[in-house]
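Exercise 7b. Backbone tokens:
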């Protein structure tokens, strides 16, 4: 009963806070999406929460409140290409080989696409950026870190295959948890207080272990990419390297031989090895066939699995209704060549936005926090690229929120860039104090 009271108190507090304005409504939406309060309580309370349709009403509130408040909307090449990608998903859903299924799925994901844009609109400064990162990280990472530390202490090296509704199976959990690692690192690096900084680092180690304890091979590769990318982009490379080695020294020694044996099958081409390289290559081949037969719109939004059997040249040798096992081949098969090109363009511009924000911050010491957040978001994207290569994670809401963060970073960086010449001009235009004549009283 205490858990039920706790969840409903959090929900009530979020609603009250959301009434302050659309940005706080955005925080409530993110908390609900990542925390999933219905999964924290049991029947009939979970049914009550589901019946509230929180994400739908809060999402609508964010849009309407933003319009009524006179919020300035953002337009840029990044926003344009993202809009075109969303339009392509709409066309693909309407022209799908599985029309009812694809349309239902698209309507569910439409909220994610809309919220991505409003992250770019409403996150206008570093304070708001930090609040949003906090909402994302703590809502999803608290339970993940708790499970990670409990597993490490009570059953070190054991496999944790518990799914997370927001992320999916163990592979999705691994990638999602690893995307939290650089966010917690940014929060730790941008707070001056000792205990919050230690708490964020504690949570960082917990979600890192939670990711590795899934025994996901794609997650393991993504973890290595995370370490390399964060080290390369960090200013104090020696300090960051020490941090990476310290985390590795805590986490890796407790992993048993079974873990390392599973990681060793990443390059396995045995036909009997479930999820082997041979199997993935076959699923990617099927995706290419789908795209060749449906080059403009693909087989339909989220329709790869349902269309798989009709395009499978092996006639069920690898099973029925299989997954694409790849972001890139999944998008190619489901949205066609235009969809994949737009998807890649949005991703490339997200990297570019992070790069520009880091470059601006490097020129202004007062923007060091902006640089840390840009590095963090960029590292999240690296984790997604590597982990998503082996996982159908293409429409996950967390990825699109990170894209929204990259757009917000670009907006913050651009506003600071415009403000600097204006401040300089004001300084040059100010009347200079004339020196007092010789012998005059100062």
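Sequence design result:
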């Amino acid at each position: 009963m205490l858990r039920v009271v706790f969840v409903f108190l959090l929900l009530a507090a979020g609603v009250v806070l959301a009434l302050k304005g659309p940005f706080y409504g955005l925080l409530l939406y993110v908390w609900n999406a990542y925390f999933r309060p219905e999964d924290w309580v049991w029947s009939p309370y979970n049914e009550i929460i589901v019946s509230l349709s929180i994400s739908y009403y809060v999402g609508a509130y964010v849009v309407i409140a933003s319009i009524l408040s006179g919020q300035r909307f953002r337009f840029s090449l990044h926003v344009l290409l993202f809009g075109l990608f969303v339009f392509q998903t709409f066309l693909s859903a309407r022209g799908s080989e599985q029309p009812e299924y694809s349309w239902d799925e698209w309507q569910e994901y439409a909220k994610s696409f809309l919220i991505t844009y409003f992250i770019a609109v409403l996150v206008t400064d570093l304070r708001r950026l930090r609040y949003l990162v906090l909402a994302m990280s703590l809502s999803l990472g608290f339970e993940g870190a708790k499970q990670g530390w409990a597993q490490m202490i009570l059953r070190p090296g054991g496999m944790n295959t518990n799914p997370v509704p927001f992320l999916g199976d163990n592979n999705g959990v691994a990638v999602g948890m690893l995307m939290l690692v650089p966010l917690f690192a940014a929060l730790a690096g941008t707070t001056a207080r000792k205990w919050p900084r230690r708490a964020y680092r504690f949570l960082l180690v917990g979600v890192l272990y939670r990711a590795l304890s899934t025994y996901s091979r794609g997650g393991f590769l993504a973890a290595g990419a995370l370490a390399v990318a964060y080290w390369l982009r960090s200013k104090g490379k020696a300090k960051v390297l020490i941090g990476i080695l310290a985390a590795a020294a805590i986490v890796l020694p407790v992993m048993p031989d079974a873990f390392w044996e599973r990681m060793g099958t990443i390059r396995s081409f045995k036909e009997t090895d479930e999820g082997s390289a041979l199997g993935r290559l076959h699923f990617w081949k099927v995706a290419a066939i789908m795209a060749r037969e449906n080059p403009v719109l693909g087989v339909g939004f989220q329709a790869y699995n349902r269309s798989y059997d009709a395009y499978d040249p092996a006639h069920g040798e690898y099973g029925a209704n299989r997954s694409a096992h790849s972001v890139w081949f999944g998008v190619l098969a489901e949205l066609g060549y235009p969809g994949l090109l737009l998807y890649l363009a949005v991703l490339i511009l997200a990297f570019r936005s992070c790069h520009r924000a880091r470059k601006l911050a490097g020129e202004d010491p007062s923007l060091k926090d902006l640089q840390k957040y840009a590095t963090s978001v960029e590292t999240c994207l690296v984790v997604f690229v590597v982990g998503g290569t082996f996982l159908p994670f293409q429409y996950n809401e967390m990825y699109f929120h990170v894209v929204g963060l990259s757009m917000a970073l670009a907006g913050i960086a651009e506003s600071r860039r415009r403000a600097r010449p204006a401040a300089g001009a004001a300084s040059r235009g100010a009347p200079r104090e004339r020196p007092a004549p010789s012998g005059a009283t100062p």
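Instructor comment: The CA atoms of residues 178 and 399 lie 12 Å apart. The longest helix spans residues 327-363.
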